Amino acid sequence: MRQDPASTAAAILPLVGGPANVTSVAHCMTRLRLGLADPAAVDEEGLRALPGVLGVVVDGASCQVVLGPGVVAEVTTAVEGLVAPSTADRLAARGAELRAARTRRNATPVKTALRRVANVFLPLIPALIGCGILAGVNGLLVNAGWLTGLTPALAAISSAFMALIAVFVGYGTAKEFGGTPVLGGAAAAVVVYPGVAKVTAFGVQLAPGQGGVLGALAAALLATYAERWCRGRVPGALDVLLTPAVTVLVSGLATLYGLMYVAGAVSAAIGTAADWLLRTTGAFAGLALGGLFLPLVMLGLHQALIPIHTTLIQQQGYTVLLPLLAMAGAGQVGAAAAVYIRLRHDTSIRTTIRSALPAGLLGVGEPLIYGVSLPLGRPFLTACAGGAAGGAFVGFFAMLGDKVGATAIGPSGWALFPLLAGNRGPALTAAIYGGGLLTGYAVGFLATYVVIRPGAGRIHTGGVVKAYREPAEGPPGPEMGSAP
């Protein structure tokens, strides 16, 4: 039964110390994120007992309440209406200080770097999805010979963003790393400017787009550091003239005579490595990627894959890694279905599964992870086994020469079908991906059904096992189960 968002919000606030204890209110795809002045005031057990709450994570000054997609946006709006604006404004600065202090205390250099790079690419995902779907529709129309007068327009619309994605990456890089965003975009634009074809360095002629998004990232990062260097040395009266000029000049020359070559070599190596990996060890690679992806998400290390996905999409038109990783969500769904059948007398956990399973089928696996598999323990491992089996299925066909890829990152599960692409036609590509999903469902279900014991659901009472913690920091963008 659907819970009223206003009632849920009203029930949550007293359990987190009341409106006066809330310093910030935000949400991502599935979680209500509350910044708190006094984290000790949170009643975790009471929160987990609320109808509609799928899990709770308290980390430092942050309380994250897992509510599921769709519902979380409505509850967040209701919470914002109940928190007095004056209180929120007064405590917002304190909340920001606490979050920053927690970040400095807990974040490792590697995780911090991965998170910041991921923050550059996450805002691009909606455009990647939209253009990817249009590219798929256009491909179907071209293959069928339909609407021939419209297909050139669709091709232009779907391809324009990818042609200029380097500029958006440069803009986002400068913004994330503390530079002037438009200067980062200007530095990255050098990578895709057609005129670079006239530039020859070290006896080699450049090609527009050489280096791709990695070259754009490096160019904008260099521009940011060059801008900072200038700001501290150029007199104020000349800053508005000299700093932008020096920033663009230094980063532009370095890009033309160095970064584009290096980034181009790295991009080519990524594409070659991905093709070799699937062609020679496809089944094993799929097993490893599908089986280990959920633990990578738990550690926040999946963010390192986002630039790789984007590079493959720009280079080959699709990423062959995403369908393999998406199998982790299939294993999660199969495991949850087995729990639902096996623990037929546990009303609480069956209610959680009923509300979270539709989202899981569409690739949003977080409610199932934090509401079902992690609290029960063993189903998390059997879900990984299901993901490994599904990945091995798709990888096996890659060894036979049938590649399955995705034209965008973000969606997974059944939501990935409109974005599928491959080298053997849409029907076979969809059949292989669908077979992988079914394999993941089946193995995740059977493995969980065997290992779980009726009555084991009692450990779910009271909420998520505290030993399992969601990554405290991470971009609010696509969450896993969603594959990237």
Draw up the topology in text.
Blueprint: H1 5-15, E1 22-27, E2 31-36, H2 44-49, E3 55-59, E4 62-66, H3 71-82, H4 85-106, H5 109-121, H6 125-144, H7 151-163, H8 165-176, H9 181-192, E5 200-201, E6 204-205, H10 212-231, H11 236-299, H12 305-316, H13 322-342, H14 347-361, H15 366-376, H16 378-399, E7 404-406, E8 420-422, H17 426-451
Antiparallel strand pairs: 1-2, 2-4, 3-4, 5-6, 7-8
Description:
With about 475 residues, the chain is of the alpha+beta class. It folds into three domains: about 100 residues, 2-Layer Sandwich (Gyrase A, domain 2), CATH 3.30.1360; about 160 residues, no CATH class; about 170 residues, no CATH class. The chain has 17 helices and eight strands. The strands form three sheets. Strands 1-2-4-3 form a four-stranded antiparallel beta sheet. β5 and β6 form a beta hairpin. α11 packs across α16 and α15 crosses α16. The C terminus is likely disordered.
Keywords:
Gyrase A, domain 2; 484 residues; 3 domains; alpha+beta
Largest sheet: 4 strands, antiparallel
| Helix-strand pattern | HEEHEEHHHHHHHEEHHHHHHHEEH
Distance between the termini: 31 Å
Domain count, please report it. Answer: 3
How many β-strands, per DSSP? 8
The residue-averaged pLDDT reads 85
What portion of residues is helical? 55-70%
Structural class comes to: alpha+beta
Low-confidence stretches: 86-92, 456-484
What would you report as the Rg, rounded to the nearest angstrom?
A: 24 Å
- Spatial strand arrangement across the major sheet: 1-2-4-3
Helix count, DSSP H or I runs of 4 or more residues: 17
